[in-house]
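Below is a filled-in request sheet from our internal design queue. Each sheet records the structural input a requester submitted and the sequence that came back. We keep these sheets so that new team members can see what a complete request looks like end to end.

REQUESTER: design group, bay 2
PRIORITY: normal
MODE: inverse folding
CHAIN LENGTH: 265
BACKBONE (tokenized):
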């Protein structure tokens, strides 16, 4: 969330800095007063409140994260089933809800749902919340759970899977993994968390569950596994939502318009 000062233009960007009281602290420890900012750019409607700003205030611009190019994540018919393949594409850290995803899958399978969980991503050694590789391998030895490690073929992941899952329980900006899954037309099971609910609305693009509620997540997987029409409807609406306001083009246009308006003032 760096504050940019160029020709008397000050913009506070929400993502890479942190704020405390009346100040934003930027790169290299630079300190700026919030009252000096003329415009604020956020990725969701929850974060402006942390600054004491109204999401609809004239000085606030909200964009769809970094956006996504739908052409890179084409919408395809879902693959054959059963099983219904559920994918998590994420860093393997606890706060992304990886353990919750594993447990939700266990419970869904215990209820008779023909679901498989596929984990894509690697641990982050620099993060104290990182999940040990030994734990990931132990989970992967269980029926219905596979850890694949790193992938650079995310579009292919969504073509080969039926449902996107992210049970994150920390404050997100706007997870790119969900933008990519939605662009590919996959229904989403995720938490009703800051940043996430900017994209996913319950019953429209996916199913929102309370944070750390593994039973609710398991029930959502059971519901989607048993209802192909529901998967298709949620997936189509997810794709449409990306086209409406979460494309790279839309984000570039919004940021460009912000700068043009300030240059003209």
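RETURNED SEQUENCE:
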């Amino acid at each position: 969330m760096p504050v940019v000062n160029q020709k008397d233009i000050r913009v506070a960007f929400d993502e890479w800095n942190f704020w405390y009281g009346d100040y934003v602290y930027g790169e290299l420890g630079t300190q700026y007063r919030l009252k000096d900012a003329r415009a604020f750019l956020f990725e969701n409607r929850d974060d402006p409140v942390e600054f004491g700003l109204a999401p609809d205030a004239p000085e606030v611009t909200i964009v769809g994260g970094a956006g996504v190019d739908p052409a890179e994540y084409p919408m395809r018919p879902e693959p054959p089933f059963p099983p219904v393949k559920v994918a998590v594409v994420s860093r393997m850290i606890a706060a992304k809800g990886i353990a919750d995803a594993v447990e939700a899958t266990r419970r869904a399978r215990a209820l008779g749902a023909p679901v498989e969980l596929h984990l894509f991503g690697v641990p982050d050694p620099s993060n104290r919340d990182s999940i040990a590789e030994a734990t990931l391998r132990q989970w992967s030895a269980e029926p219905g759970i596979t850890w694949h490690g790193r992938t650079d073929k995310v579009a292919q992941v969504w073509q080969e899977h039926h449902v996107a899952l992210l049970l994150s329980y920390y404050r997100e900006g706007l997870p790119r993994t969900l933008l990519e899954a939605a662009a590919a037309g996959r229904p989403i099971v995720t938490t009703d968390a800051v940043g996430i609910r900017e994209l996913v609305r319950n019953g429209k693009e996916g199913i929102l569950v309370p944070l750390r509620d593994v039973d609710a997540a398991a029930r959502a997987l059971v519901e989607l596994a048993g209802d192909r029409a529901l998967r298709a409807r949620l997936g189509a609406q997810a794709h449409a939502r990306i086209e409406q306001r979460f494309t790279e083009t839309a984000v570039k246009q919004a940021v460009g318009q912000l700068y043009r308006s300030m240059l003209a003032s």
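SHEET NOTES:
- Confidence is low (pLDDT under 50) at residues 1-32.
- The longest strand covers residues 84-89.
FILED BY: M.R.
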